[in-house]
Amino acid sequence: xxxxxxxxxxxxxxxxxxxxxxxxxxxxxxxxxxxxxxxxxxxxxxxxxxxxxxxxxxxxxxxxxxxxxxxxxxxxxxxxxxxxxxxxxxxxxxxxxxxxxxxxxxxxxxxxxxxxxxxxxxxxxxxxxxxxxxxxxxxxxxxxxxxxxxxxxxxxxxxxxxxxxxxxxxxxxxxxxxxxxxxxxxxxxxxxxxxxxxxxxxxxxxxxxxxxxxxxx
Length: 217
Fold this sequence. Notes:
transcription regulation; mainly alpha; two-stranded antiparallel ribbon; DNA binding; 217 residues; 62% helix; WH_DNA-bd_sf; Tscrpt_reg_HTH_GntR; Four Helix Bundle (Hemerythrin (Met), subunit A); 10 helices
């Protein structure tokens, strides 16, 4: 019995969370509005006050609500950051590459306006390092290539954009890790293990020269 009880308890909390998130997404309460009390929510959902309390703590941790001691709970946001992270964690490689590419295109436009001389110097240094490694060690080239793109996005000076780009770049970087078995068979020094990412739009040395002039002005 003691092994089963916690599972039942978590299940009730999950159900309460689902109902509360649904009410929030449906606009039941406005941002900044005080939510019903624990007894009121318990009666509405048909669960105990303890279950409501635990569910509210989860919502507070995710940033959806703010619990003010002695005052009540208030809606802070209608978007659940944890829900977004769960969705991101299930994206495919193709989706990650596509999103990374979209973010990079937007970053280039912002970087052209916001970049500093330090940004420009860092971009040129990363580009040179990548070019030197293009026909050499693949693992080193991938690292240099990802660094160039990271610096390009960072030049947009938007922390949220940089964090998102870094997340999707990490997925792509792991997926295109070099495969030693394919090294010898690669024509022209372009490894088959990495060519698919290039052909789908992850810029190599040639294509990476396209956005740089837009920034280098």
